[in-house]
Amino acid sequence: MDFFFLTEKVINQFYPNTVQLSEADLYGAILREADLTGAKLVQTRLEKANLIKASLCGANLNSVNLSGSLLFEADLRPSFNQRTDLGYAALTGADLSYADFRAASLHHTNLDGVKLCRANLSLTIQWGDLATDLSGCSLQGADLSYTNLNNAILRKANLQGADLTGAILTEVDFQGAIMPDGTVHD
């Protein structure tokens, strides 16, 4: 298995403007502290990639597979309407404020301490009425203030200590979820 190691300096040397990595196979890539601001990553394979402290501000992550990736303290704000697979990814402390992840797959993702302030994780008509799947996610201490979770699936998610101030929670599936106060939703 090949691994790639790209630092911010290397990326800026080869891609002084917008980074174009659409359809690239970066399985297991090490992109620690990489600046991928505004990058085009459409249909890129980034499973099990290391994107710790990477900047993906405004990146096009449409149909990207980031499952099993490490995105600790990564900056993904503001991303636009994505059909992104973040299942089983670790996004601890990531900044997803204002991100638009309608219909994203985030099942079993670790989102502990993540900032999702004003993010849109609602159902989208554009992708055939697919709901954002946050089943089994860990959202302990996450900032979900003013986040649109309309029709999202949060079955068995851990929301203990999460801030849901002003969050839009219409038709959310909380079956078996641990709520911010520690109680389990029926």
Task: Walk me through this protein's architecture.
The chain is built from 1 helix and no strands. The chain has 186 residues and is low in regular secondary structure. The N and C termini lie far apart (44 Å).
- Overall mean pLDDT score? 82
| Beta strand count | 0
First CA to last CA: what distance? 44 Å
Query: In one word, what is the shape?
Result: elongated
How many helix segments?
1
Q: What is the percent of helical residues?
A: under 10%
Q: What structural class do you assign from the helix and strand content?
A: little secondary structure
Determine the strand fraction and express it as a percent band.
under 5%
Order of helices and strands: H
Main beta sheet, described? none
Low-confidence stretches: 1-16
> Rg from C-alpha positions?
16 Å
